[in-house]
Amino acid sequence: MSSCATAATPTADADAPTTTRPPADETLLSKKRRADRLHDLPAAAELRERRAVLVAAKTAAATRSASTSGRHSMDDDPEQSLEELASLADSAGLEVAGRLVQRRERPHPATYVGAGFADRIKTTVESLDAGLVISDDDLSPAQGRNLEKILGCRIIDRSELILDIFKDHARTRQARLQVELARLEYSLPRLKKMWSHLGRVRGGIGARGGMGEKQIEVDKRLVRNKIRDLKRDLTSIAARKARSVSRRAEEFGVALVGYTNAGKSSLFNRLAAPENGVLVANRLFSTLDTRTRAWDLGDGVRALLSDTVGFIRNIPHHLVASFHATLEEVRSADLLLHVVDVSGDDPLGSARAVRKVLKGIGCEEKRELLVLNKVDRLDPATATAEIDHFARQLGAAVAVSAHTGDGIDDLRDKVAGLFGSFWEELELELDAGDGRRRALIAANAQVLHQEDDPETGRSKFRIRIDPRFLGDLRGAVEDVDS
């Protein structure tokens, strides 16, 4: 979105010379990358542009819903929702100068907030010398345009803020393409707000030509073509990702899921990557790309542990859709470790928000183990009672501290036990020359007992193994049963 505070929009003048059409290389896509960056501003203007006022409209319907249910969480508490928005702003390198909440029956269709409250926002922005307003809800193109005219400064919404964070944290080609796709899909209905070169481009044959098409129509066609190309590239990447995941189908897959900044990356490093771990930062969405490592569960049992992108409340649907390929590890996992920060402001609400997203991507039936992280931050006098309370509300859980290592052995033992429940225990007998089946057992089974007969060379095994391998062992099992 364009900045109303730092750049004047050229206006048409009958006596002024007509402006020429921007050269071909000055397309929407190249201009958009420059215009919407929060970083490319002169030093003096940059400080003001990075100072933001947060705004939320609390609807009466949400208030009635919270009162009726008796259950309050960030989903119906604008102050807590703004606290999350402030964390997002911090992750984007912004300074939160102020916060404002309006309670109304429903958002105003033209300006999101009422006229009087819009004036209050303008006064607050001027008194705090802020150059940016961030809405906690997504704004329609018309709401954004009208508010910027009233406030005289730039306004962005939650989606645009998240996209800016995603852009800075994307590392792999897949993540960068997904961010670009989400940004373009978000920008498409907002082009009129961003650009002033909306006159018609001369068309037809010869020097005079016809009316041609409006520049905005040219821009929209460019964006749609780019979206089509990105979707084609991401479909190809998703197919390769699916093949890669399917090749690991014989392994026991465990995926870390949870609210962003719940400590998933710290736990991942503690469990599977103590020497060469993933980035750990006290900011939202510090992990955007999926990482997978082998995790030794003991007794010859191994799992593949994946660290995934964190979730937040009210994450826009189009962002979830754009990052479907990144969530492939979650959909293919045998077990989800749902990490919850028990020291946070609203652990129960965070856990429910994560489960809501999991349901949205078709993973609500996945087996889940709750991991209550950051127990070292709880008051020792009340820690046990708090942990028991969360377990009663959310289900069976293991309490850990990724920072200190407390509870890590208990978590490993619990996962190893669940791992065994996925497998079948059986007995079989193999000839000395049955190298193929012996190799399969060595690589993929937990051997509980082995008895070798030195005279015949045959071996009797009692093993625990994934049911997917039973077809390869069926003949040997039947020999024992008979």
Beta-strand percentage range: 15-25%
Name of the top-level CATH class of the largest domain: Alpha Beta
What fold name stands as the CATH topology of the largest domain?
Rossmann fold
Q: Compute the average pLDDT.
A: 77
- Strands ordered across the widest β-sheet: 8-9-7-10-11-12
Report the total helices: 18
Q: What does the largest sheet look like?
A: 6 strands, mixed
Low-confidence stretches: 1-35, 37-41, 63-75, 195-200, 202-210, 478-482
Total count of strands: 15
Distance between the termini: 75 Å
Kindly name the structural category.
alpha/beta
* Helical content band: 40-55%
- Assign an overall shape: elongated
Q: Cα-atom Rg, whole angstroms?
A: 28 Å
CATH superfamily heading of the largest domain: P-loop containing nucleotide triphosphate hydrolases
- CATH architecture annotation name of the largest domain: 3-Layer(aba) Sandwich
Number of discrete domains: 3
